[in-house]
From TrEMBL:
Segments passing through the bilayer: 78-98, 118-138
Signal peptide region: 1-22
Highest taxon, organism lineage: Eukaryota
Keywords: Membrane, Signal, Transmembrane, Transmembrane helix
Record's protein name: Nicotiana lesion-inducing like
Entry annotated with the keyword Signal: yes
Length: 158
C-alpha cells in the first residue's frame, strides 16, 4: 500500500511539476508566455476585486507573480511527493489564487464557446483543489502517535 500511495502522489504532483518546469524554461526576462497570457486576466480580476471591495490594489510585476507560481508549483509538488502536508498547503495556495484568475468563465455569456471551455477547466481545477483538501484532511485525521497502553496485571493480591 505504501508504494501505491507514493506512486499516486508522484502522478498527482507531476501535473504541477511539469507545468512549473515548462514555465521556468520559458521564463526569460519578462516572465515569458505565462506572464503575457496572465496579464490581461489579472488586470480584469483586480478591477473586479477593487470595484467590489473599494480598495485600490497595488501594482504588481507580472514576472514576480509568475516566479511565485513557479515556486509554489515546484516546491509544493516536491514536498507533496514525499507526503508533506506543507506541500499540499502550497499547492492549495497556488490553486486558490490562480483558478479564479485564469479561468474567468464569469466574464463570458453562457452561449459563447469560451464560457464552456473556461468552465470545464475551472471545474477540473476545482477537482484538483478537492483532491488536495482530501489529502490534507486524511493527513490530519491520522494521529501521529498513540500512547502505549499499560497492560493490567492479572494478579490480585487482596
Amino acid at each position: 500500500m505504501g508504494f501505491v500511495s507514493f506512486a499516486g502522489r508522484v502522478f498527482f504532483a507531476s501535473v504541477f511539476l511539469l507545468a512549473a518546469y515548462q514555465e521556468f524554461s520559458e521564463f526569460g526576462v519578462d516572465g515569458g508566455l505565462a506572464a503575457k497570457a496572465l496579464w490581461p486576466k489579472y488586470n480584469l480580476f483586480m478591477k473586479h476585486v477593487s470595484s467590489h471591495i473599494g480598495i485600490v490594489v497595488p501594482h504588481v510585476e507580472m514576472k514576480h507573480v509568475i516566479a511565485s507560481t513557479i515556486f509554489l508549483k515546484g516546491f509544493g509538488g516536491l514536498l507533496f511527493i514525499f507526503g508533506s502536508s506543507i506541500g499540499a498547503y502550497l499547492l492549495l495556495l497556488y490553486q486558490a489564487f490562480i483558478t479564479p484568475v485564469v479561468y474567468d468563465f464569469y466574464n463570458y455569456d453562457i452561449e459563447k464557446p469560451e464560457f464552456v471551455q473556461l468552465f470545464s477547466k475551472f471545474a477540473q481545477n476545482l477537482a484538483l483543489l478537492g483532491a488536495l483538501l482530501f489529502f490534507v484532511g486524511m493527513k490530519n485525521s491520522i494521529p501521529r502517535w498513540q500512547p502505549k497502553k499499560v497492560p493490567k496485571s492479572k494478579n490480585k493480591l487482596n
